[in-house]
From TrEMBL:
Family (UniProt): Belongs to the peroxidase family. Ascorbate peroxidase subfamily.
Lineage: Eukaryota, Viridiplantae, Streptophyta, Embryophyta, Tracheophyta
Documented EC number(s): 1.11.1.7
The protein's name: Peroxidase
UniProt-listed Gene3D superfamilies: 1.10.520.10, Peroxidase, domain 2
Subcellular location as annotated: Secreted
Annotated active site: 65 (proton acceptor)
Length: 324
């Protein structure tokens, strides 16, 4: 009798201990506390996509930019207060769709107050906009908690510029715990969305400061881009994947293979054996694995520097930390 009591006690302790230690990310983290979370996010996103399809790109990019600085903990969503936040860093000024994240949060707070983190909302939204653009779905791990710090200086240091060469890209991704494969796969997100001309006009007009063009960019493509983007244009948007910029397909790789990647960081994928081989394989479109690979790499990206368990908090409003 005493033995079986001891045994039950041990099992109980093991359970408690195990729960306390496996408070990492998992698929279905909210199954008990907020079972309709994914359906609610999906509904808001589908409604949004039917009215404003151009928000798919910015919302996918937002999760990446969140994860780059301090990990995927929702810091990109915080407004500046006494000090400037990540949101105000120049590379983040082109992010859009914060209102949609707020709409999702409002809907979730109504259903299950104080349960779902803003960091998880970003991860779920990134998946749902990809699917809305005809990409392939993946299972999103949840259980992230929200950070309380957002700092413009960190964003300026950690966000990866479009002028990066392959060495900088590889080391940047390595620092985040991501592989070279993740780099080439996640860059494929540039199959949707638009870019401001100013993010690449140096390649068209003044590559090395002597009025030259980037020799690695296809001259025909340069001519076409010049029609769209004048030298000091800071407002015009160019399609990242002309012709199918609202469809999540393999055309990004076809472009890169033809030396038509919009940024130096896209073109740089031809400067490394592994990334070049991947681009070549996907560009042929026969037996492309990109759509499946993307989900796998997004899960990897979504694990960067997460706060779980009792660290961080579940913000009430995504744009500001909870009052303590
Ligand atoms: C590899 C390093 C990367 C660099 C240097 C980079 C850089 C950029 C830049 C400069 C823009 C254009 C911003 C503008 O001028 O409006 C952009 C757009 C975009 N990026 Fe990236 N990016 C990278 C990786 C990623 C990743 C990993 C994702 C997502 C998983 C992503 C998703 C997007 C999307 C969807 C857009 C279009 C945004 C829109 O439509 O407004 N990027 N990126």
């Amino acid at each position: 009798m005493a033995n079986s009591k001891l045994f039950s006690c041990l099992i109980f302790l093991l359970f408690v201990f195990n729960t306390a230690n496996s408070q990492g990310l998992k698929v279905g983290f909210y199954d008990k506390a907020c079972p309709r979370v994914e359906a609610i996010v999906q509904k808001v996103i589908n409604d949004t996509m039917s009215k404003a399809p151009s928000l798919a790109g910015p919302l996918l990019r937002m999760h990446f930019h969140d994860c780059l600085v301090r990990g995927c903990e929702g810091s990109v969503l915080l407004n500046s207060s006494t000090h400037k936040a990540e949101k105000d860093a120049v590379p983040n000024l082109s992010l859009r769709g914060f209102q949609i994240i707020d709409n999702v949060k409002t809907a979730l707070e109504k259903e299950c107050p104080g349960i779902v983190s803003c960091a998880d909302i970003l991860a779920l939204v990134a998946r749902d906009v990809t699917v809305a653009d005809k990409g392939q779905s993946w299972q999103v791990e949840t259980g992230r908690r929200d950070g309380r710090v957002s700092n413009i200086t960190e964003a300026l240091l950690d966000l990866i510029p479009p002028t990066s060469n392959i060495t900088q890209l590889k080391s940047g991704f390595q620092r985040l715990g991501l592989s070279v494969k993740d780099l080439v796969v996640l860059s494929g997100a540039h199959t949707i969305g638009t870019s401001h001309c100013s993010s690449f006009t140096d390649r068209l007009y003044n590559f090395t400061g002597v009025g030259d063009t980037d020799p690695t960019l296809d001259p025909e493509y340069i001519a076409r881009l010049k029609l769209k983007c004048k030298p000091d244009d800071t407002t015009t948007l160019a399609e990242m994947d002309p012709g199918s910029f609202r469809t999540f397909d393999v055309h990004y790789y076809t472009n890169v293979a033809k030396r038509r990647g919009l940024f130096q960081s896209d073109g740089a994928l031809l400067d490394d054996g592994e990334t070049k081989a991947y681009v070549g394989l996907q560009a042929t479109n026969h037996g492309s694995t990109f759509l499946e690979d993307f989900g796998v790499s997004m899960v990897n990206m979504g694990r960067i520097g997460v706060l779980t368990g009792t660290t961080g908090e579940i913000r009430k409003v995504c744009s500001k930390v909870n009052e303590s």
